[in-house]
Design a protein that fits this description.
By secondary structure, this protein is of the alpha/beta class. The protein is built from twelve helices and twelve strands. Pyridoxal-5'-phosphate binds next to helix 5. Its EC number is 4.1.1.22.
């Protein structure tokens, strides 16, 4: 290690200085990440998978998948792996083979953008509905599309308020509806009930599209058979992050869209010999390889066990935190444990994501019971009277 604890990264990284000690900068980044790992339990990246083989073996070349994953020409270095990833995720979600399309994205955000863009082109007069618990990318995307947004109330536990959705839809029955449901809301990991949403749309005879933002929970719920895109469910598209449950060490994801809702236009680009159907055109082939590798390492069964173990750690966390006198709760399917916001020192140390009076930790695969014990010990020292009460006690705490 060539740096000391006084190492100033901003100074060392300043590109106007010479000479630049590149090794010291890289050492510092690695040291910082290593040091932070033990207490990084607030954000949803799995830490149990080893991607070193792909990172070191493929690190010397450019991996660019230009154009559509189904193209046959052009430059697309890991297109075959991308196709395998798309097929695996679509099969897992039971998406009909004859009505599916998708690609490897830069993350859940691009997946939401691609899906909502496709749906809005199909229904250009639609109003786009999403709940107050939806991810911040959703209102941003609606603005980018220039569409009308309708914000639906969410309950304190994070699930969409269906009565409010019904009331909002009823007022706008003359326009098609694009509804964004979330499978794993950012703060509490609530899962909106797509069957209920579809039933409300059917009751009002409304045309439109149901998109699921499943950035965190898409794969774990699908492994359990709790989320699928078969014909009965009426879900038109889904966005999943690759750096969350699959722990890929670079932001990436998968989007799947019903082929039948997409515009038939398939713009051809002469100089790339590719079809321009994705948001970015040039796309990260390394991400496709990393996703493929992560899936191949464990297969369906192995990933199911990863999810089961992580949920068991989350249940343990609820028990241990409650044993200190601090409140905590989780949805039965969730890796996320919600608690009243602890003091600043604890939040900072454990990187607990916080929204006002509520914070969370996320027991992603790789988070250990030892880490939970250490957090619980910190919370125990922070207990003052009166003990904070759970904000949403009405949710089961055991898987
Ligand atoms: C519900 C939800 N949607 C979308 C996203 C964005 O995903 P990404 O970071 O992969 O763009 C997140 C990220 O936290 C999320 O929690």
């Amino acid at each position: 290690m060539t740096h000391t604890h006084t190492f100033d990264l901003a100074v060392a990284a300043d590109l106007s200085r010479t000479p630049i000690d590149v090794t010291a900068v890289l050492d510092h980044l690695i040291h910082t990440a290593d040091t932070a790992a033990a207490t990084s339990i607030g954000y949803p990246g799995a830490v149990d998978l080893d991607h070193t083989a792909v990172m070191t073996r493929l690190g010397h070349w450019l991996w660019n998948n230009i154009g559509d994953p189904s193209d046959t020409g052009g430059v697309a270095h890991t297109r075959v792996l991308e196709q395998a990833v798309i097929a695996w995720v679509a099969d897992l979600l039971r998406m009909p083979v004859e009505d599916r399309w998708g690609y490897v994205t830069t993350g859940g955000t691009e997946g939401n953008l691609s899906a909502l863009h496709a749906a809005y082109r199909r229904w250009p007069t639609a109003r786009i509905y999403y709940s107050t618990a939806a991810h911040y990318s959703v209102p941003k995307i609606v603005d980018m599309l220039g569409a009308y947004k309708v914000v639906v109330a969410a309950r304190p536990d994070g699930e969409m308020c269906y009565d409010d959705l019904a009331a909002q839809l009823r007022k706008r029955r003359r326009w098609p509806a694009i509804v964004v449901a979330t499978a794993g809301t950012t703060l509490t990991e609530a899962v909106d009930d797509t069957r209920r949403i579809r039933a409300i749309l059917t009751e009002y005879g409304m045309a439109g599209h149901l998109h699921v933002d499943a950035a965190l929970s898409g794969i774990p719920l699908a492994l359990d058979g709790q989320l699928h895109l078969d014909d009965a469910g009426g879900i038109g598209s889904i966005a999943i992050s690759g750096h969350k449950f699959l722990g890929v060490p670079t932001p990436c994801g998968v989007v799947l869209i019903r082929d039948s809702i997409r515009t038939p236009a398939r713009p051809q680009v002469a100089y790339t010999a590719a079809t321009d159907t994705t948001i970015t055109g040039s796309r990260c082939g390394l991400a496709a390889a990393l996703l493929w590798h992560a899936i191949a390492l464990h297969g369906r069964e192995g990933h199911w066990w990863r999810a089961a173990e992580a949920r068991s750690t989350a249940a343990y966390a609820v028990e241990q935190i409650r044993a200190t006198g601090w409140a905590a709760w989780r949805w039965p399917h969730a890796f996320t444990v919600v608690l009243p916001t602890p003091p600043e020192s604890i939040r900072r140390k454990w990187l607990l994501a916080t929204d006002g009076t509520v914070s969370h930790l996320i027991c992603m695969p790789g988070i250990t019971r030892g880490q939970i014990d250490a957090l619980a010990a910190d919370l125990a020292t922070a207990i003052t009277t009166p003990i904070p009460r759970p904000r949403t006690p009405n949710v089961t705490t055991m898987p």
